[in-house]
Amino acid sequence: MENEQRAVRSLFGPIFIGSFLNGILYGVLAVQTYFYYQNSSRDARWIKFLVLFVLIAETLSSILDFAVIWEPLMENYGSPTIFQTTPTTFSADPLVTAAISTTVQLFQGWRIRKLTKLNFVFGSIALTAFVSLAAGLTTTILIALHTGWSQLQMFESGFLVWLIASAMCDVVIAVSLTWFVLRNKTPFTSTNSILNRIMLLTLQTGTITAVAAIADVFTFTISEDKTLEFVWAYSLSKLYSNSLLSMLNARVEWNKLLDPPNVQTQSDVSFFHVEVFHHTENPLMRYDTSDQKPATVVYPPF
């Protein structure tokens, strides 16, 4: 009996912790999504649908992940098969997580393309994102075909390609946006403050997702525990989704700093609006200095 309890803790404990963290991050995502729709009146309709898709996909992800715990510990507890065969929904996580991360990464690649006009940067982001998606799909198919816990190591190649490609994509995104921000410092203190915040938030979100993916890789390859990596794996998609929503929602405060309510400006544009501008140094930004007031800088949606 004691050995059985120890085996249950070893096999399903990390999955339980990962599902618990998944639930916490889902709550954060739900709050961020509500805040987004309260302040997204100027966003393009397709961006609103993108956020809705991410929320629906994350809801499905949470249901599938909790089902992985429910089936062996509630439906089949006491049966020796729980130590031999993976739960029914176990195979879905790589594909769902890769689909969400790829969606977020392509959106970030799109806005980088709008900012920098550099096709090769967007191409690099899209390539690594789709490699990650393909590897996630391959891993899901292999797990569905080989349902034994003892066979998890068979999927090591697909698993590693999936997570390493995703981490590489995050690094490209973070470096590209940081380069753009540093290159486009302005004479205006308020504008530079916003640029610094963009860079900091980009580095934070990109670093978190990349570190989580790399930690997942290390625990999978180094640990003898078959399921330890799921502490990270079941939280990964929520980190991507929350990074997307945190960036979109941060624009509200950035706009307040650039265009405070008690300051009358001749421009009603904001970070919510997408336009292309001209400037003597960089054609991607324009500064309105006709009345010697701080400029409003407009970017594609962040």
TrEMBL record:
It comes from the Eukaryota. The keyword Transmembrane applies. Keywords: Membrane, Transmembrane, Transmembrane helix. Residues 166-252 form the DUF6534 domain. The chain crosses the membrane at residues 12-37, 49-70, 90-108, 120-147, 159-182, 194-215. The keyword Membrane applies. InterPro entries: DUF6534. PANTHER family: CHROMOSOME 1, WHOLE GENOME SHOTGUN SEQUENCE (PTHR40465), DUF6534 DOMAIN-CONTAINING PROTEIN (PTHR40465:SF1). This is DUF6534 domain-containing protein. It comes from Lentinula lateritia.
